[in-house]
Amino acid sequence: MEFRKAGVIGAGAWGTALAQVTGWAGLETLLHAREGDVVDSIRDHRINAAFLPDVVLDDHVQVTADLADLAGCDLILAVPPAQFMRPTLEAFAPFWRPGVPVVLCSKGIERGSLKLMTEVLSETLPDAPQAVLSGPSFAAEVARGLPTAVTLACSDPVLGEALMRTLSAPGFRPYLATDLIGAEAGGAMKNVLAIACGIVEGRALGRSAQAAMITRGFAEMTRFAVALGAEATTVAGLCGLGDLVLTCSSPQSRNMSLGLALGQGQSVEQALAGKRSVAEGYESAPAVRDLARSLGVETPICEAVAAVLNGEITVDVAIDGLLSRPLKVERH
Fold it and tell me: Mind listing the domains of the chain with CATH numbers?
């Protein structure tokens, strides 16, 4: 199984970085962008000035505003924000060819339906072979070729091996897994937990508090993923713990930056104002809370974040609530 032409749907920072990866891997790459200024910037200057400035794209990468142009691709990477995955795939469906695999590269849970991205794909392109790409990866670093390792989850071992070979590029190393749910659950929840860690940083609560937040957040992530049917070992890898550590330890993370602003006293509206890139945790927090409740899973940190973002409680009330929880035995 060999892939020659990749279509990347979604020209935000992460989609653009992944187009760079497939270009480095030698694939003819067509990057789909909805925004006219992004198309013009890449065509005229080989740079996505809006979302990934200062990174010159590989010569294998071209750009289009028309999903129909992706009809000739033999591999699709789907990278729209999670809340736009369904309409994006529905729009692409007339141009998808049978047998062409779709690699889901967005992290989140669909609000309303509480569906994972694999479920959204199964409902929009029911016959598409699917895989999930997730892990600790800042787009700007990936696009500059800095060393990055991620999880590539695929239930079909033959397809998984082919995708792993195809997406391996200088500085970009995929590790193969079969647990798609684990890869998705870790990626969806870590964005919410990163907001919590940003609040800790913004309130200057100290490194001890941040370490506790990451550790207890990982316990929530593991419980949540296992309740969905994932394997705990998957979440302990790059797509769970690895991604959590990265996203919760650097203001370069959009989600942590959102929490940082909230911790410093800004309102949600102020923290989001003027941001063109999406903080997935803001959109996913209510869905994570609702899905965890439906599964009977205790997720106090994610509950608190969702309540803050929804204006139900203040940051200080959220912190007090977490600190005043009943004392208990530590377990995951």
Answer: 5-178 (3.40.50.720), 181-324 (1.10.1040.10)
137 is in an annotated binding site: yes
Is 207 annotated to bind a ligand? Reply is no
pLDDT > 70 in the chain, percent? 98
Do residues 77 and 15 touch, judged by C-beta distance below 8 A? Answer: yes
Asked whether residue 49 is marked as a ligand-binding residue, the answer is no
Q: Report, as residue numbers or ranges, the catalytic residues.
A: 190
Predicted confidence (pLDDT) per residue in 258-308, tens digit = 999 999 999 999 998 877 777 888 989 999 999 999 999 999 999 999 999
CA distance linking residue 106 with residue 85, whole number of Å: 8
From residue 76, alpha-carbon distances to 5, 223, 294, 317 in Å are 9, 31, 32, 44
Per-position b or e across 214-234, b if 16+ CB within 10 A of its CB: bebbbebbbbbbbebebeeeb
Query: Which pTM does this prediction carry?
Result: 0.94
